[in-house]
Amino acid sequence: MDEHPYAAAITFIPVTDLQASARCYADALGLPLVLDQGGIHIYRVARGGYLGLCQRTEPVIADDRLILTIVSSDVDTIYKRLVAAGIATDGPPHENPRYRIYHFFARDPDGYRLEVQRFLHPFDEG
């Protein structure tokens, strides 16, 4: 059996305003849209890793137990892009010695907690 039989991973989250979410994920974060199914947009986050946004009419209840983390070597530039786009953050990137990462948190239009981080130790990035 193949050691890695899976082709990709997609995390789907419900959103109340697909266009506002598109401005956050496509415009501000720069994620490429790979599939538009009308009420569902799928964005590439990394090779084999995708984020699907699903338009919903009922209110979305964002829960801080869910953190959408994006790993990047250029955390500072992404922070500046999000701030320029009016996306709320918890402040500028900083080092977290406990986890040996450099990161910051933000909130998408539905209140989901986003984290952009760089590992300060070796990490298998695929």
Q: What report would you give on this structure?
A:
The protein is of the alpha/beta class. It is 17% helix and 37% strand. It contains 2 helices and 8 strands; from the N terminus they run βαββββαβββ. It has helices spanning 18-28, 75-84; strands at residues 9-15, 33-36, 40-46, 49-55, 67-71, 94-96, 101-107, 113-119. The strands form 2 sheets. Strands 1-4-3-2 form a 4-stranded mixed beta sheet, with helices on one face. It has a 4-stranded mixed beta sheet with strand order 5-8-7-6, with helices on one face. It is globular. The protein starts with 8 loop residues before the first strand and ends in a 7-residue tail after the last strand.
Main attributes of the structure:
2 helices, single chain, 126 residues, globular, alpha/beta, 8 strands, four-stranded mixed β-sheet
The protein's oligomeric status is single chain
Write down how many β-strands occur, each being a DSSP E stretch of 2 or more residues. Answer: 8
Secondary-structure-based class equals alpha/beta
Helical content stands at 10-25%
- Span from first to last CA? 20 Å
- The order of strands across the largest sheet is 1-4-3-2
Give the topology string: H per helix, E per strand. Answer: EHEEEEHEEE
Low-confidence sequence ranges = none
Strand content: 35-45%
Shape: globular
Average pLDDT, all residues: 93
Number of helices: 2
Largest sheet features: 4 strands, mixed
